[in-house]
Design goal:
The chain has about 200 residues and is an alpha/beta fold. It has a single domain (about 5-200), classed as Rossmann fold. Helices cover about 40% and strands about 20% of the residues. It is built from seven helices and seven strands. Strand 2, helix 5 and strand 3 form a beta-alpha-beta unit. Helix 1 runs parallel beside helix 3 (about 50-60) and helix 6 (about 145-155) crosses helix 7 (about 170-175). The longest helix is centred in the N-terminal third of the chain and has 18 residues, at about 20-35.
Length: about 200
């Protein structure tokens, strides 16, 4: 998919504004520059960054109400999906936290947030923090059962967990919920026909 096609989808299907598209272009440029020194994303995906990383993350906006509440991204890495969602968010009362244990990646996230005036808090290792958000998102963070454990044991309030998952999502869910059952939905990813978006409601 061409970059312009992705940008049209972001604007027409997900309501990204001209300003947020401009911010995403700056973010992409900074990420590619940083990626020459650090392996933030696979070199093979650099040419498809709009589709493979940005759109893949951006599709989560349709499952989130940005009118109020808060969101935490577990293991943000180079900003996927949390930083993309923070760029989309225009509500100063909706708070975004990006959790990343790597100091190098945290410094990159801080730099982008400062450059684009993004209202997001950069946090360290999730196991050293208090997580109390309404939405928890994750992409390429840990195995699903480990993410479920974080949601169940570390997050302090009822929340919606949203996980971008590749193949075998149903099988991974069955393993993760072998002992305890939770209500969940599986949504199709628009970037890969084999990928799924897992949405779980955790009640506390």
């Amino acid at each position: 998919m061409q970059d312009i096609e992705v940008i049209n989808i972001l604007q027409n299907q997900f309501n990204f504004s001209s300003k947020t598209i401009s911010d995403l272009k700056i973010f992409k440029k900074e990420l590619l520059k940083a990626n020459t020194m650090h392996n933030f994303i696979s070199k093979s995906t650099e040419i498809n960054i709009w589709h493979r990383h940005i759109l893949d993350s951006a599709q989560l906006v349709k499952f989130i109400s940005f009118s109020n509440g808060s969101l935490s991204d577990l293991g943000s890495g180079a900003g996927f999906p949390g930083l993309i969602l923070a760029i989309f968010n225009t509500n100063k009362h909706f708070h975004v936290k990006l959790y990343e244990k790597s100091p190098v990646k945290r410094a990159f996230l801080e730099n982008i947030c400062n450059k684009l005036s993004i209202k997001a808090k950069i946090c360290g290792n999730i196991y050293d923090e208090v997580i109390d958000s309404d939405y928890i998102v994750a992409r390429a963070f840990k195995k699903l059962d480990a993410i479920i454990q974080v949601s169940r044991e570390i997050v302090k309030k009822s929340h919606k967990l949203i996980v971008l998952k590749g193949q075998n999502a149903q099988e991974d869910l069955e393993k993760a919920f072998k002992k305890e059952k939770y209500d969940y939905k599986l949504e199709n990813s628009i970037t890969n026909e084999d990928s799924k978006i897992i949405i779980v409601d955790f009640k506390k």
